[in-house]
Amino acid sequence: MRRTTLTAAVLLIAQAATAQPLNEAYILAPNDQTDSLQFGDHVDIHDGVIIVSGLGLWTVPVPGAAYLFDAATGTQLAKLDTPALEGPDQILFGAAIGANRAMVATRNWAFTGTYNPRVWLFDTTDPASPVFLTYIQPSDAGNSDDFGDSIAIDGSVAIVGAPGNAGAASFSGAAYLYDTTTGAELGKIIASDGASVDQFGWSVDLEGNLAIVGARWEDESAPNGGAAYLYDITDPANPVELAKLFSPMGDENDYFGYSVTIAGNLAAVGAMFDDDLGLDSGAVYIYDITNPGIPVLTKKLLASDGEDTDDFGWSVALEGTTLLACSRTDDDIHPGGGSAYLFDLTDPANPVELTKIVPSDTSANATFGWSCAIDGTTAVIGASQSDAVGPNQGQAYIFDIDLAPECLADTNGDGAVTPADFSAWVAAFNAMAPQCDQNGDGSCTPADFSAWVANYNAGCGS
To answer: Is the separation of the CB atoms in 363 and 384 below 8 Å?
Structure first.
């Protein structure tokens, strides 16, 4: 087994670019929304389909629920149903979606003390008509394992966290690998240095043959400082621990590993209770994992306007070199309203903060940023405590995060600036079409011809 422990310190703050405000494309809420559903507790997106779960509230009781949405239209496609998902004491935890598969985790939160945690597997080939396939429980299931608190899917493999599992010691935690085609258990992951109450498995992600697992209460850097681990899962029955990540400048109760994400050669780890910009202001650590056995800490990210109790890094998501990092209790507009930050990690040593995202209907204690996910240029962000519709009903939001400047001279929209665009501009002028407006004054006039020539000569950066 090969493992690298990182100790080199890198304390850096991201550059901030000129903010480009983003407005949500759609606000999501289920057709059968109810008070205390806490819709938006978990979100995920794959290939144009979004899954959003609501935790529910056992004391009312309000059963948890999960729903599928069309990312292009914001339309609800389906509610994920099984007989067990309809019970009054059924609380939902993790939720994820991948290629033709969705998974949701449940727990019976009744006074019986029997939580019976399970993960339910659905075929979403037709997302408007999902088909329940089977439920999953680990081969060594325990009542207090918290199995399903975190889930991630890539290809035909899923990883499911069980931070309460006693794999190495009491509540040290574990993660399990599953075949999403059959639901078969493929392997179990335990930290090589797991200790009591580490909560390994609190957060998980995977891409290809690489998995990352967060242990928010691991103690190596400081008591409850937190850690994350990288694994080679080429042989899922025998996962290989490659490296352990922890903050070399971490403090007690930072919760490094509360959130994790990987994409390509990058990994990001949230430490929501980091105190660099004030008590519990939060931080996100960026790693170059080109060689996952020797990951390199390239940057410690802090929000450009971070303050006390923002919880920056509560949730994180990577797509390519685009990072979404959320502050669920940012109070710039309303106390506890929440926000999200978009970063360009093209140069991971010098990330650029592209914009800060706040929903149009932000309100106090909405916790916007409770959950987040990215697929392509579409982001979905949950606000599970939002009262916009009703008390703690929750909402989720879809954003187009493509911030590339519009190429106005490409009048025919073929992705290239060529003389053919002049003919397209003439046609747009004659038709008074929107493409005619080249100077941005909201009208189509002969002055737009000169503007088109200037835009053409500029080449739109191409």
So the answer is: no
